[in-house]
Amino acid sequence: xKKKLNIIFFIDxxxxxxxxxxxxxxxLLKYFQKCNITFVxKKKLNIxxxxxxxxxxxxIFNKNKFYNVAIIDSYKxxxxxxxxxxxxxxxxxxxxxxxxxxFYSDFVINYNPNVKEINYRGKLSSRxxxxxxxxxxxxxxxxxxxxxKNKKKNILIYFGTKDRTKLIKNIILKLKxxxxxxxxxxxxxxYKFQMKDFDIQFxxxxxxxxxxxxxxxxxxxxxxxxxxxxxxxxxxxLIYSKPISxxxxxxxxxxxxxxxxxxxxxxxxxxxxxxxxxxxQNIYFSNxxxxxxIFFPIKNNFGQSIYLDFFNLSFSKNIYSxxxxxxxxxxxxxxxxxxxxxxxxxxxxxxNPKIQLLVIKNKKNFVGYIKIEIKxxxxxxxxxxxxEFQGKNIASMMxxxxxxxxxxxxxxxxxxxxxxxxxxxxxxxxxFSINKNIKTxx
Length: 442
Hints:
- This protein has twelve helices and 20 strands.
- It has three domains: 6-135, 3-Layer(aba) Sandwich (Rossmann fold), CATH 3.40.50.11190; 153-269, Glycogen Phosphorylase B (Rossmann fold), CATH 3.40.50; 301-441, 3-Layer(aba) Sandwich (Aminopeptidase), CATH 3.40.630.30.
- It has helices at 20-28, 79-86, 165-173, 208-216, 227-234, 249-257, 289-295, 316-320, 325-328, 339-351, 394-404, 421-429; strands spanning 6-11, 36-40, 50-53, 67-73, 89-95, 107-110, 129-132, 153-158, 182-188, 200-203, 220-224, 238-242, 262-263, 298-299, 305-310, 355-362, 365-375, 378-385, 412-417, 438-441.
- It has 442 residues and is of the alpha/beta class.
- The radius of gyration is 24 Å and the shape is globular.
- A seven-stranded parallel sheet has the order 3-2-1-4-5-6-7, with helices on both faces. The chain has a seven-stranded mixed sheet with strand order 14-15-16-17-18-19-20.
């Protein structure tokens, strides 16, 4: 019987920090199913199947217990404490927003859409791998859009655990012209108040299930731009938002620029007498599925550890190396092209939300890439492997991983030259079948 992994989380969770850090870690649990889970928090937690330790001091490490993975989502953790945590775990992962100290973890995740590697210069150990940008946002997912049935609309307002009564009152006043079309205004806060002409229901809870239930039953969500905004987006809700901290602003700007949310000031244009149309979330890829294979690579038949990761421009020349006559002989278009043309093509791909490139690596070596393109609500999949890595079961192994982990939101298919026997073999071994998933051509 396979031994269960021991996973420990260090989480900021108390009356002052709210639910943000805890929510992130609960989202990460989907990668660690059937594991022994321990949460270290200041405030006591009661979650079924999870051991809770209420002690952030170094005395926790005197028990000589070793963990397979330690995950840190805490502003209270110092570089010294992170070093100590690293000694009791095989893999250490830090979720960061602040970039305000030295990091010793194996992985640092910062899904801020504006963060760059240069921001971490001089702050990383030699072993630390950075996972930066929205591709690594493990909170946003492709949950089914949930609609409410009431003719009148439910409004949810949530701006964290601090007293933001003045802000919330100003927001409610902007809803005044829609009063007769509102069923309920639900405010998630412990700071109650009254307002003439408005029936307001107050709830205060640090139970994420309560908050998610309120989101699900709301038609319009007026919220901060923290972690909750990505959970709300996953349910396809109409969102009006405002950043209430410095580290929330990049997320707000990114989502507003991409037409996913509206500003609080836009509430004056809201007309609840009409049908609510939420912005199209355009979630074409389950990006969070890639995190597991980054943390835990797959070993092929030759004992090599094979990773998948998201493409970045540093791999542009690697991909270009697979565009010569040898690799293109089975393509529909067999013509080669200059690196200048290739670079322009890559830049266009990066702008297209319906096309994605994934890089296959063996440790730090480039092995190949996978291209996925959404066409007619299907996922067109192609794969290329460097010559020296071919025949090692890598292509079929990577394709099988994507299929088994439900990475494809739309049904996957491939178009393969009938003479390309190795590619046909790899796709068939991964579960693709001729005619149903594979179209052949000469």
